[in-house]
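Homework help thread (please don't just give me the answer)

Our assignment gives two proteins as sequence + C-alpha cell strings and asks us to describe the second one. The first is just a warm-up. Here they are:
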Amino acid sequence: MTDAPLVRRHTDRAIAVLTLDSPRNRNALSAALIGELTEALDAAEADPGVRAVLLTHTGNTFCAGADLKADGIHRGPQLLVDLITRIATLAKPVVARADGHVRAGGLGLLAACDIPVAGAAATFAFTEVRLGLAASVASLPVLVRADPRAAARYLLTGEAFDTAEAVRIGLVTAWDDALDGILAGLRASSPQGLAATKEITTALLRERIAGAADGLRQQSIRLFESAEAAEGIRAALERRDPPWAQ
C-alpha cells in the first residue's frame, strides 16, 4: 500500500493546481512535502500546456512552517531556502490562495509566491520571536514583498493579523474574490511574456536570496540550538508563558 500524496495536482484550463494535503501536521514543510511540491513545480514548468500555478491547501491551515520533528533543526532552514528559491526561479507565475492559518515559515512560502490571495478565514503570525527564535529564512521574501516598516512590527511582536491587514501591508496581493480575474488574466497572457515579466518582478528577491540566504540559514540553526529557544519551545509545548514574558 502506497502512502497518500502530500501534494495533490490537477490542471484546470492551463492552470496547474497544486494542493497541500497534509492536514495531520498542518501542511508543515517536511522534506517529503517539499520534495513532492518541487516535483510538481518542475512538472508544471516543463508542461507547455500550463500557463501558471495555483497553490492551495486542505484543512484550516495553509502552512504551519518547517516540520522540525521530521527533519530536525539543521535540515529545515535549508529546505525552506530551496523551496523559496525554486518558486522565485520558476519560469511561470505562482499564485497562492490561503484560507486558513499561515504561521512561521509558511509566511515565507506565501510571500515567495508571485500573487498570493487570502480569504476571510486566513490569519497570519510570525510566531518565532516569542519562542526565542527569528523568522530568519522566511524573512527573505517577506522583506522584499511586504512594506518593511509594517513587516518589522509583526516580525518583532509575533502579533496575529488578518487578511485585511495582510493586504494593506502588501504581504498578500488581494482578497480571494479576485482569484478568478487573476487566473483569467494569466490564461490570456503569452507564455514568453509571463516568463520575461516574472524575471523582472522577482529580480530583487533573487538578489536577496543570493546575498543573504546562507547567513540567515546559519542564524536559524544557531538560534534553534540555544538554551533560550529550548526553553521557549518547551514553554509552548507545556502551554505556559516563557520566563521572559511580562
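The one we have to describe:
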Amino acid sequence: MINEDVADGDIGPDPSLLLVDDDAPFLKRLARAMETRGFVVETAESVAEGLAKAKAAPPKYAVVDMRLGDGNGLDIIDAIRQRRTDTRMIVLTGYGNIATAVNAVKLGAIDYLAKPADADEVAAALTRKPGEKAEPPENPMSADRVRWEHIQRVYEMCERNVSETARRLNMHRRTLQRILAKRAPR
C-alpha cells in the first residue's frame, strides 16, 4: 500500500525519522537539516542504540549508516522491517559495493547513498515517488576517489591489517601505507 502523501513527495502524517551514524558531527548536522524539512528526528550512534530505538518506536523513515563501530547497520534495517512494513529506509555508506546494496534492498531499504550525502539527497531519496528514478549525481566520484574507496573497503574487510590488504590488492605494503596516510581524493 502506497502512502499518497509520500507518493507526492511530501513527508506525510507521520514524520518520525531515525538517523543512525557513528560520525557524531555528521549525525548532528543531518539531524538539524532534516528537522528543518519537517521530520521529527531521533538519533543513534551505534547498532545497539539504533536497535533499542527501532524496537521501542519503529519510525516511518530511517537513514542508517552501513558500518557502525559496534556492528552492521543492516541489522537495524532488518529490525525495523520486522516491526513496521511501511517504513521508508535508506542506507548511507562510505564503503559501497554492489553486494551490500543488493542486501540492503532485500532487507527493505528503498535506496543506497554514498557518503558524503547531503540533506537534500537524503530527503529526496526518502520522499521519492515509487518508480521514480533518481537524478544522476552532478559531481560523480572521480576515478581516484573510487580507487581510494575500494582500497578503504578492502582495508576494513581485512580488519585494518595493512599486510593482508596489500596482499589482497596485489600491491606493495609501503605503497599501500602511503595511500592510507593521505586524505581521500575528491
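TA reply:
I won't write it for you, but here's a hint about the kind of observation we're looking for: The mean pLDDT is 84.
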